[in-house]
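Q: Structure for this?
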Amino acid sequence: MRKDNDILLQAKGITKHFGGICALDQVDLELMNGEILGLVGDNGAGKSTLIKIISGVLPKDSGEIYFEGKKVDIKSIKNAKDLGIETVYQDLALVNTLNVPANIFLSREVTYDNMLGKIFRFMNHKKMYKESEKLLKKLGINIGDLAKPMIEYSGGQRQAVAVSKIVYWGKKIALLDEPTASLGVRESKIALDLIKTLREHGLSVVIISHNLQHIFSIVDRIMVLRRGKRVGVKNAQEVEANEIVSMITGVDRNNVI
Amino acid sequence: MRKINAKSLLKKGDFGLFIVASILFLVLSFFSKSFLTSYNIFTVLRVLSLYIAIGLSQAFPIAIGNVNLSVGAIGGLATITTGFFLQDLGTPGWLAVTMALTVGVISGALIGVLVAKAGMNSFVVTLSTLFIYTGLVLGLTKGFSFTDIPRSFTFMGKESFLNIPLLFYFIVFVLIICYLFFNHTTFGRRILATGGDIEAAKLAGINTKMIVFSVHCMSGFMAALTGILYVSRIGTAQPAVGSEWLIVSFAVAIIGGTALKGGYISPLGILLGGIIMVLINNGLILLKVSIYFQETFFGLLILLAISIDRIREIHRT
């Protein structure tokens, strides 16, 4: 029986339409403090839409969101970030022409403390480079010279940078949309290990993935969406993969929560 | 720590431009007796300054993946505004300059609003403003120039210091400001982020609408500055002035390394691109190639520059 003050984020009755299509229909989500929640479902189930609503990218049509027990209105990406919600999107949202520190500090650049910084907003390149180096070192990520444009790094390295952004800026919640989608076996393992350490840095995590093997390797609970509706939530330890598959595809053999 | 040496200062693309500019310079010096005369160099530097100014006005929108087809027309509006205030109203130079720059910013702002807020394509919008502004220039002046410009106004445009035109010092100053702006300020970086990947920039929380609007205002400002400098340079304000500038603006911006898909601008590259353009133009004149073919050469140059841009793009990925 979970106590109410264990619930970090609670979404109730989230509904979203795109024109005539119902992407989300009265969906509830609870994220417990310090847990890793897996969000699974087939294509078009509404997983990305739900994440985008929580991260402030899309507005919801109806429903309520409670953060640390208080009702909140997440109207913009900034709102979500102010609450401590950081997101890694499917395409990583990294700017290819900028380098690693520039991407880690994008829109939150470090400026000089003096006149140059305060009036002209001159960026402190050295500080951002050093901070980025420290951050990646702390996470055990080694990608060499950080001053190359983002496009020159491999898929796994880019993913590592995107996840490290979360560690640096994320205060409470990390939302990850298909973090291993474009990664090979070895890179996926590195990414998943990184994601596991997010918890050690005080973050609660929601992770979307098609890969149930990856999901089962790191999450505490699994929430299943199907065609915009929540089918159920299960403890990862107490459920088998093929049960989750049947929840995803619609052959319900268990009770719907 | 990032290595700062001669190589990174002249990044790969700029270095190539430097080589080309140097070769052109050597070829012209060798083949033409009149090239290295102080009069020719002086003239060349003054033309170069205006080429760079109009090149910048196009480079800004290109850096965010847009274009401004009306830079010449805005330059024309600024030119006649300057002429009007100096000749018809007799106002002091600084007021004429301020008004002309304001006209430029407003012209750019109109484009900015339609592109940023109404989400219209910059090509289509600036194609329209090209005609709108050109029509205004010709309609308001009925084709007549302002010839009664006070001599003092041509100080910047005609004078020199140590044999180098003041115009050139001024434009180098502008280029330095641009370099500091794009490489060292948060706003400049956010412009490059918006140009590099507008969706990623939005997701990072950057107000891309405001960025796009601002960049078009900046483009209008630079185009107007070009018009004002032009009045200072020749001493009259002619209404037909803007039409040739459009092709020059693209040539200088693209040869100067401004990536067509956005996200990159190099003030040094634009300086070198301007030098290449002006040397080729000067070379054609000295070799007595008919001036009517000038546009063909410019067009070929732009094609060459686009091909180089494409090669750079493939090399980048």
